[in-house]
Amino acid sequence: MHEEEIKLLQKRALNFLDSAKERFQKEDWDLVCFMAEQAVQLFLKSLILKEIGEIPKTHSIRKLLGIINQIKEQNIKFERKELLFLENAYLNSRYFNFLYNKEDAELAIRIAEEILNLFKIY
Protein backbone atom coordinates (compact mmCIF):
# COMPACT_ATOMS: atom_id res chain seq x y z
CA MET A 1 0.00 0.00 0.00
CA HIS A 2 2.52 2.62 1.17
CA GLU A 3 5.51 0.33 0.73
CA GLU A 4 7.62 2.76 -1.32
CA GLU A 5 7.03 5.65 1.08
CA ILE A 6 7.84 3.44 4.07
CA LYS A 7 11.09 2.31 2.47
CA LEU A 8 11.98 5.89 1.59
CA LEU A 9 11.37 7.13 5.15
CA GLN A 10 13.43 4.29 6.59
CA LYS A 11 16.24 4.90 4.12
CA ARG A 12 16.25 8.59 5.01
CA ALA A 13 16.25 7.74 8.71
CA LEU A 14 19.29 5.51 8.33
CA ASN A 15 21.00 8.10 6.14
CA PHE A 16 20.40 10.77 8.78
CA LEU A 17 21.98 8.56 11.42
CA ASP A 18 24.96 7.76 9.20
CA SER A 19 25.34 11.46 8.40
CA ALA A 20 25.19 12.31 12.10
CA LYS A 21 28.14 10.00 12.66
CA GLU A 22 30.04 11.60 9.80
CA ARG A 23 29.37 15.10 11.18
CA PHE A 24 30.56 13.86 14.59
CA GLN A 25 33.99 13.30 13.05
CA LYS A 26 33.94 16.95 11.94
CA GLU A 27 32.92 18.09 15.44
CA ASP A 28 29.70 19.65 14.18
CA TRP A 29 27.83 18.93 17.40
CA ASP A 30 24.65 20.91 16.60
CA LEU A 31 24.12 19.13 13.32
CA VAL A 32 24.85 15.74 14.88
CA CYS A 33 22.07 16.28 17.41
CA PHE A 34 19.63 17.51 14.76
CA MET A 35 20.36 14.59 12.44
CA ALA A 36 20.01 12.02 15.22
CA GLU A 37 16.60 13.46 16.08
CA GLN A 38 15.55 13.37 12.43
CA ALA A 39 16.64 9.74 12.13
CA VAL A 40 14.42 8.74 15.02
CA GLN A 41 11.48 10.88 13.98
CA LEU A 42 11.44 9.60 10.39
CA PHE A 43 11.90 6.00 11.41
CA LEU A 44 9.06 6.08 13.94
CA LYS A 45 6.81 7.74 11.37
CA SER A 46 7.62 4.96 8.88
CA LEU A 47 6.50 2.35 11.42
CA ILE A 48 3.25 4.20 12.03
CA LEU A 49 2.63 4.62 8.30
CA LYS A 50 3.11 0.89 7.85
CA GLU A 51 0.57 0.09 10.55
CA ILE A 52 -2.17 2.69 10.05
CA GLY A 53 -1.56 4.07 6.57
CA GLU A 54 -0.87 7.66 7.52
CA ILE A 55 1.85 9.79 9.06
CA PRO A 56 0.98 11.67 12.25
CA LYS A 57 1.39 15.43 12.18
CA THR A 58 3.74 15.69 15.14
CA HIS A 59 7.47 16.05 15.64
CA SER A 60 7.35 14.69 19.18
CA ILE A 61 9.28 11.47 19.55
CA ARG A 62 7.40 10.79 22.80
CA LYS A 63 4.05 11.10 21.02
CA LEU A 64 5.24 8.92 18.15
CA LEU A 65 6.37 6.21 20.59
CA GLY A 66 2.99 6.54 22.33
CA ILE A 67 1.19 5.94 19.04
CA ILE A 68 3.35 2.89 18.36
CA ASN A 69 2.60 1.56 21.84
CA GLN A 70 -1.13 1.91 21.16
CA ILE A 71 -0.96 0.32 17.73
CA LYS A 72 1.21 -2.59 18.78
CA GLU A 73 -0.38 -2.90 22.21
CA GLN A 74 3.11 -2.78 23.69
CA ASN A 75 4.66 -0.79 26.44
CA ILE A 76 7.94 0.35 24.97
CA LYS A 77 9.61 2.49 27.59
CA PHE A 78 12.49 4.83 27.19
CA GLU A 79 14.12 7.33 29.48
CA ARG A 80 11.87 10.42 29.35
CA LYS A 81 14.77 12.80 29.98
CA GLU A 82 16.66 11.39 27.00
CA LEU A 83 13.62 11.62 24.73
CA LEU A 84 13.12 15.25 25.74
CA PHE A 85 16.78 15.96 25.05
CA LEU A 86 16.49 14.52 21.55
CA GLU A 87 13.18 16.28 20.88
CA ASN A 88 14.67 19.61 21.89
CA ALA A 89 17.49 19.11 19.40
CA TYR A 90 14.92 19.49 16.63
CA LEU A 91 14.42 23.18 17.42
CA ASN A 92 17.49 24.14 19.44
CA SER A 93 19.99 23.11 16.80
CA ARG A 94 18.22 25.09 14.10
CA TYR A 95 16.64 28.17 15.57
CA PHE A 96 17.90 29.14 18.98
CA ASN A 97 21.11 30.48 20.43
CA PHE A 98 21.93 27.09 21.89
CA LEU A 99 25.15 25.17 21.36
CA TYR A 100 25.64 21.45 21.75
CA ASN A 101 28.92 19.87 22.78
CA LYS A 102 30.67 16.56 22.15
CA GLU A 103 28.93 14.81 25.05
CA ASP A 104 25.55 15.96 23.75
CA ALA A 105 26.37 14.65 20.30
CA GLU A 106 27.46 11.29 21.73
CA LEU A 107 24.23 11.09 23.70
CA ALA A 108 22.10 11.95 20.66
CA ILE A 109 23.70 9.22 18.55
CA ARG A 110 23.39 6.68 21.37
CA ILE A 111 19.69 7.46 21.88
CA ALA A 112 18.98 7.23 18.15
CA GLU A 113 20.76 3.89 17.87
CA GLU A 114 18.94 2.51 20.91
CA ILE A 115 15.53 3.51 19.59
CA LEU A 116 16.20 2.07 16.14
CA ASN A 117 17.54 -1.09 17.79
CA LEU A 118 14.27 -1.43 19.72
CA PHE A 119 12.77 -2.24 16.36
CA LYS A 120 15.78 -4.27 15.19
CA ILE A 121 16.61 -1.95 12.31
CA TYR A 122 20.04 -0.48 12.85
How does this structure look, described?
It is a single chain. With 122 residues, the protein is an all-alpha fold. The chain has one domain: Nucleotidyltransferases  domain 2 (Four Helix Bundle (Hemerythrin (Met), subunit A), Up-down Bundle). The protein is built from 5 helices and no strands. It starts with a helix and ends with a helix. The mean pLDDT is 91.
Write the layout of secondary structure elements.
Blueprint (H helix, E strand, L loop, with lengths): L2 H23 L3 H24 L8 H12 L7 H13 L9 H17 L4
Helix pairs in contact: 1-2, 1-5, 2-3, 2-4, 2-5, 4-5
Question: Which descriptors would you attach to this protein?
Answer:
122 residues, mainly alpha, 5 helices, 73% helix, globular
Largest sheet: none
Low-confidence stretches: none
CATH class: Mainly Alpha
Mass-distribution shape: globular
Based on the structure given, which CATH architecture is correct? Answer: Up-down Bundle
Do you know the CATH topology?
Answer: Four Helix Bundle (Hemerythrin (Met), subunit A)
Instruction: Say what oligomer this is.
Output: single chain
Terminal Cα span: 24 Å
